[in-house]
Amino acid sequence: MMVCNLPKLYSMISSRVSVMSNNRVISHRDRSYLAISICAWFHNRFIPAKKGTGGSFFLLFFCFVLFCTGVAVESSEAKPFINRLTVGILSHDVDDLWSGDRREGGWVFNLEFVFSHPAYHIFSGVLRPNLGANLHNSDDTSSLYGGFLWERSYRNGVYFVSGLDLAWHDGDIVATSADKKSLGARILFRIPLELGYRISNNHAISLLFEHKSNAYIFDPNDGMDELGLRYNYTF
Predict the structure, then answer these.
(1) SS3 of residue 1 by DSSP
(2) Helix, strand, or coil here: 212?
(3) What pLDDT is attached to residue 50?
């Protein structure tokens, strides 16, 4: 059983609010701390502890988004609207990974846009919004997704990407046959893990793993994994 108990967060908030009270101008970071404090108080006051991780998961995700509004923002001057265009082929509903067994087959064509603005510098990387699609080659599950990706680049050309998206899918909420998965909700969470190498300033190749599920907020929750190669063009 998971209970949202955040004493360290409250202590941090109290110290920040004390500083804020002595300043006329409140920074973006201070406004984020204040918003997180209100969010955490609301959760502990009105959302009872219950089996599962749904309530606390939503709280932590919301706090993360609020915190990002207070970190350094990259200048939007002389930046293209689209930062990166990615295409790839992914094996669909891969066996023996995060989701366990495989019931659907085939592959999906992956198309993704990563936008230049807003861009937040956080944890030695850059956080940017994204929008993408996985289109199945037959009649199994396809999806559309969007959210934020965090990218960390290294001097040797290697880069790592992860993030969190919300994904809409056209699969089964409750399976209608043995070769379908019960995904439990029409909107799922998508967690990507990508390792890539930059061939040049514009061109890169990468290996992508992605997991989609409802995080056990709803029942059932079979989940679905995809794995494959992608080509990335940076503008």
Answers:
(1) coil
(2) strand
(3) 44
Residue 192 CA to residue 165 CA, distance in Å, equals 8
Element (H, E) at 224: strand 224-234
**Whole-number Å distance between alpha carbons of 195 and 210:** 12
Residue type, 227: L
Are 82 and 113 within 8 A, CB to CB?
Answer: yes
Beta bridge partners of 131: 113, 146
CA dist 164 and 147 (Å) reads 6
Question: What pTM does this model have?
Answer: 0.70
Token pair recorded at residue 3: 């209970």
Helices 28-46 and 54-68 pack at an angle, to 10 degrees, of 170
Architecture of the domain defined by 82-234: Beta Barrel (2.40)
Residues of the chain with CATH 2.40.160.20: 82-234
At residue 187, does pLDDT exceed 80?
yes
The one-character DSSP state at 53 is: S
- pLDDT of 199-219, one tens digit each? 999 999 999 999 999 999 999
